[in-house]
Amino acid sequence: MPRNKPSAEERRKKFEALAFPHMDALYSTALRMARNALDAEDLVQDVYLRAYRFFDKFEQGTNFKAWIFKILTNTFINRYRQKVREPLHTEFDKVEYFYTEAEKERDDKYETRYDEKRYADLFGDEINTALSKLSYDFRAVVILCDIEGFSYKEIAAIIGTPIGTVMSRLSRARQQLQKYLREYAQREGFVKNPK
Amino acid sequence: MSQACKEIQDQLAGYVDQEIEPVRASTISQHLGKCPGCAQEASVQSEVKTLVREHAKQVPAPAHVRAEIRLTLERESSRFGFLSQLRALFQWQPLPAIATTIVLMALSGFAAHFFFPSQAILGGNDVQFVDGSLEGEIICVDCTLMDMTATPYTHDAIHRLGLRCKDGRLWSILPSDQGRELARDPSRFRRQVRLVGHLFQSVRYIEVKEFSLI
Questions:
Q1: Looking at CA atoms only, how far is residue A39 from chain B in angstroms?
Q2: In chain B, fewer beta carbons within 10 Å around the N or the C end?
Q3: Higher per-residue confidence, B210 vs A89
C-alpha cells in the first residue's frame, strides 16, 4: 500500500504534542465560560475531538494556541451558550438574581464534593466572582487578554470581531469589574460609601 | 462626559496594553494630562488588569478529563486509520475492493457474535438483563487480566474499572452515569463495594444504578 500520507498514529502523536500542553488553559477557560465543572469537561473534550478532526485545516507554523481557542469559543457559542441561558449584555444588579438562581440550580443538580471543590478553586475570591458576573462578550475578552495573554489581533481572530471592538469591550469590561469590586468593598466596609 | 472623553475611554485598554498606534497613544497621553476623569479611568484599567492576572489563575484539568481525551483521540485515530486504508483500497482496485468489503461486512456480523458477544448482545435488540446486586472488590480489568496471563503489557490510559466478586468472577462496569461516578474517585480503587443495577449475566456486564462502600 502506498504510504505518502502520515499514518493515523503519527498524525495523532503530532496533534497531541501540539495540543496537550494547552489543556489546563483550555480547561480553565472552559470553566470560566460555562461556569460549571461538568459542562467545562464536556466542552474541553468536544474541543479536542473537533480540533483533531480539523487538524488538517491547521496551517503549520501558525499559532496553534489561538487556533484551538477559536475552536473553543465557537464550540461554546454553538453548543453550550443556549444551555447556559445567559443574557447578552448585563448590568450587575440584574445579573445578581439570575446568577444566584443558576447557582442554586447547579448545586441541586450536581451535588458532589468534587464539583464544589473545583468550583471553589476558581471562584474562591471576589475577582473571580466579579469576572463570572460579566456578560459572555465582556468575560471572553478579559479571559483571553489578561489571563491567557493573547494579543488584540489574536483575540480578534478568536472571537471574530474587529480589533477596535476587542479594545472597547476590554475597556468596558475592566470598568465593570472595577465597579463590581468597589461595590463589594463598600458592602464589606473596606472603603466608605461616597456621599 | 464629552464625546472626546467617551472615545478615549473606549481605547484606554489599548493604551495601557500598548496595543495602539504610537500617534494615537501620544494624543491620549496629552489628554490624560489635562483630564483627571480619564486619567482616573486609565489607572482603573491597569489596576484591574493586574488584579485579574494575579488572582484568576489557571485551573489544572482533572486527571480523568485528560485520560478521557486521550482515549477519545485513540478511538478517533483508529477509526481514521481504518477509513483511510479503506479509501486507499478503493483507489487501488475498486471492484474487487467493493466485493471484499461487502463480504467482510457480512462476515463481521457473524464474527462479532463469536468474538465480541458483549457488544453484539448489549448493542442489539435482544438485551437481556436482570436487576440485582453484586458485592466485591473494585479492580482494574486490564491490570487483573495482565496479572492472570502474565503478559508484559502496560496500558497507559486510565484503569478500566471492574468488580472482582468473592467467587473470583470478574465483572465489567458499563459507562453509565453512576459507573462513571464510581470511576471518578481513585480512592475507591481496591475497596469492597456493593453495586446495584442491571446485570447482563451472559457477558458479565453490570450497569450500575447505585453503589455503596462496605
A1: 12
A2: C
A3: B210
Q: Are B68 and A45 in contact (CB under 8 A)?
A: yes
The reply to whether A175 touches chain B by the CB within 8 Å rule is yes
Of A142, A146, A120, A117, the residue nearest A131 (C-alpha): A142
CA distance A98 to chain B (A): 23
Task: Give B90-99 contacts, CB < 8 A, sequence gap 24+.
Answer: B92/A1
Please, which residues have CB within 8 angstroms of residue B121's CB and are 6 or more apart in sequence? B127, B128, B200, B202, B203
For the segment B150-172, the average pLDDT, to the nearest whole number, is 72
**Res A109: pLDDT:** 47
Quickly tell me which residue has 471492484 as its cell. B95
Please count the other Cβ atoms lying within 10 Å of the Cβ belonging to residue B44: 21
Which of B178, B180, B48, B158 is closest to A172 using CA atoms?
B48
A101 touches chain B (CB under 8 A): no
Nearest to A8 among B48, B58, B84 (CB): B84
Q: Which DSSP symbol is given to A147?
A: I
pLDDT in tens, A90-121: 444 344 334 444 544 544 444 433 343 333 34
Q: Does B126 touch chain A (CB under 8 A)?
A: no
Where is B8: in which H helix or E strand?
A: helix B3-9
**How far apart are the C-alpha atoms of A43 and A80, rounded to whole Å?**
8
Q: Report which residue type is found at B107.
A: L
Which string of DSSP letters, residue by residue, matches B49-86? Answer: HHHHHHHS---PPPHHHHHHHHHHHHHHHHHHHHHHHH
* Tens-digit pLDDT profile for residues A38-64: 889 999 999 999 999 999 889 888 899
Interface test with B, best of A11, A13, A123, A170 (most B CBs within 10 A): A170
Q: How far apart are CA A163 and CA A145, in angstroms?
A: 12
Nearest chain B residue (CA) to A12: B77
Is B183 in contact with B161 (CB distance < 8 Å)?
yes
Q: Are B58 and A178 inside 8 Å of each other by CB?
A: no
Confidence band, pLDDT 50/70/90 cuts, at residue A132: confident
Residue A28 in contact with residue A147, Cβ under 8 Å? yes
Dihedral sign from CA coordinates of B109, B113, B114, B117? positive
